[in-house]
Amino acid sequence: MSATVAQPSRTLPESIALDAFMDRAAADPLPLADRYQLVAAARTLLEELYVHLPLKRAMHAIDPVQRLRLLERRLRPLSEPQFHAELAGVFRELRDLHTVYQLPDPYRGHVATLGFLVERCTDPDGTPHHIVSKIDRSLAHAGFDVGAELETWNGVPIERAIERNAAAQGGSNPDARLARGLESLTLRSLRTGPPPDEHWVLLSYRTRAGRRRETRIPWRVRAAEWRAGRAQDPVPTLATSLGIDAGNEATRQIKRALFAPSQARRPSARALRGVVAYRTLRIRSRSYGYLRIYSFNVSGARLFAERVARMVARAPAGGLIVDIRGNPGGHVPAAESVLQVLSEHPVAPVSFSLPTTGAALALARSNPGFRTWTSSIRAAVETGEAHSQGFPLTDPEAITAGLPRCTGPKVLITDALSYSAADIFAAGFQDNGLGPVLGTARQTGAGGANVWTHELLRVWLPELLGELPRGAGFRVALRRATRARGNIDMPLEDLGVQADELHRLTERDITGRNQDLLAAAAALLA
């Protein structure tokens, strides 16, 4: 049967065409001197402050420092897009979403989107399907709506298109790469990676009625967040206790704006409503609490812990389902404080170590908050250790003093997009015995570090790091996270948290508010 070609009659609101955005970006290219400055800054960060460099060289057989040396010699003939793609590629091969090159203005705070999401589900026999799970209403047309099944992407079978896209993503394990390959089909943070090559995509799909059709959807560009009349990154640049994938936090903001606009417009949404929600579920004649934590990107741990404590105090006796799927991380003390709210016993937080380099020692000597790490960095001259001793960032008991505890049974739901502070939360949940971990993938996203920006490091190391041109930036994994209790000293980076039980999403999960997934979680509680 021949395909019927269709096109949306409207464009995505509050957006501009990708080609128009790229023309604007190309109008004022970086001078050659600025390119040299960015490459030199990247080398300094990776050689002197990147805590995972030995691990990445061993696990992925790469040499990013040598690649930067070569790039420095080959800068002159590169076009503007080629330069940004090359520098971003050096960081992408680290497979570490904490450690990234952030493109200069006008890329800051912008995300390319097609205006819909695709999720993967499987039949009982393991056959995969790729279903439109959310769509902006301006794009729904000719059966291209929630529930439509994609068959090809620009003429490539959809499964192969996702595999190819996954290979270009920074996920540190196969599940994470596949999940990011799927999400980046329709959402790309322009601040942390190159834009799509194509200006539109040609899709073939089957409608829910079973009709085969084709459509062409253009890439559009939207701002993740507006402040003071300009697009801004939604993640703070001067926070010292972050563990977050800044690119995925930007795409999360776009998903909220497109698919939950009433929530995004609430005056208090930025404070807490956009990051945590609670409701009571009725599953097979029993009641359960459902705590959905979308992000830990909050300004303070105590207020967040208080909010969560009030929510979970309403949890029925049947137990509490905690869901952190798609959570890109955020404020590490906030994540570990919520763990304490969920535990009747003191929780053991993860530990953090610095690299034992000269720059790390200078940072520890200049910053009072790092003094604890100084002696073990200094001793590394004799011990040969690549990392300092590990110490916690957080005292969850002190932060949550006086708050009620949730003492009933609990289960945690994770996926391969749960990253950074969400990895830390999942590790703490498992290591402290709060309950089983139910994953829609075998592992979490496997980001194990406290991340600092180049801008923040300059405050403490002004002689080593200079100002970067035109709003460009870097983020770097500075302190390595290792687990506690039964998994003591086990790194989270590249390993993540293994699920105790696995649930592959079904079509009912994607189109019916996670019915089968929540039933599986309730079964573990029961």
What about the largest sheet? Answer: 6 strands, mixed
Strand order of the largest sheet: 16-17-18-21-22-25
**Beta-strand residue percentage:** 15-25%
Residue share in helix: 25-40%
- CA radius of gyration is 23 Å
Overall geometric form? globular
Mean pLDDT: 93
How many DSSP H or I helices?
Answer: 19
By secondary-structure content and strand pairing, the structural class works out as alpha+beta
- First-residue to last-residue Cα separation: 49 Å
Indicate the low-confidence ranges by residue numbers. none
Number of strands: 25
Précis, in short:
The chain has about 525 residues and is of the alpha+beta class. Helix content is about 35%, strand content about 20%.
Describe the structure.
- With 526 residues, this protein is α+β, with helices and mostly antiparallel strands.
- It is 34% helix and 21% strand.
- The chain has 19 helices and 25 strands.
- The chain has a six-stranded mixed sheet, sandwiched between helices. The protein has a five-stranded mixed sheet with strand order 1-11-10-7-8.
- The chain is globular, with a radius of gyration of 23 Å.
Features of this protein?
single chain, 526 residues, alpha+beta, six-stranded mixed sheet, five-stranded mixed sheet, globular
List the topology elements.
Layout (H helix, E strand, L loop, with lengths): L3 E3 L9 E2 H9 L5 H17 L4 H8 L3 H10 L6 H13 L7 E3 L7 E4 L2 E7 L5 E8 L13 E5 L2 E2 H10 L6 H10 L3 E3 L10 E7 L5 E7 L1 E4 L2 E2 L2 E2 L10 E3 L1 H14 L1 H5 L3 H5 L2 E8 L2 E8 L7 H12 L7 E4 L5 E3 H10 L9 E3 L4 H9 L7 H10 L12 H4 L10 E5 L6 H11 L5 E3 L9 E5 H7 L12 E10 L18 E2 L4 H5 L3 H11 L1
Parallel strand pairs: 1-11, 17-18, 18-21, 21-22, 22-25
Antiparallel strand pairs: 2-12, 3-24, 4-9, 4-12, 5-6, 7-8, 7-10, 10-11, 13-14, 15-19, 16-17, 20-24, 23-24
